[in-house]
Amino acid sequence: MTDYIDPERAQFDTFKALDRDQPIEMLNLVRFRDVAAYPQDHALADAGLSGAEAYRNYGADTAPIIARLGASIVWRGAFQSVLIGPDGEAWDEIFVARYPTAHAFLDMVTDPDYQRAVVHRRAAVATSRLIRCGSLAPGKSFG
Description:
The chain is an alpha+beta fold. The protein has 4 helices and 4 strands; from the N terminus they run αβαββααβ. It has helices at 9-17, 51-69, 102-110, 112-124, and strands at 24-32, 72-77, 93-99, 125-133. It is globular and about 50 Å long. The two termini are 31 Å apart.
């Protein structure tokens, strides 16, 4: 499996080209490394943290930022099984984050405090999916 940790430039450009003035939800699917992989010059490089522990550091450091921007985690779930999709695909963290606008998400990822905190995410994550969604009216049927 390919490691997807940070967006590719073309993906980020596509994200930025979409409407930025509407609320967005970001579906997060995250698989952790067994052992966090911090850069050698980082204070936690030799701490032996698990990916899950490093991701908790990321969460702790970014919580004040997302709160300040008016974002929140609106749903969190525990992976159980894949019914349709590649065999062997499993996720350690699954959640939906809601941002008041795409501007708020972009403000987050460019915030200097976030830039310092993202080292924990990069150390923690083996692979991930981050999928931007817009809200639609709820209904009583598929489609």
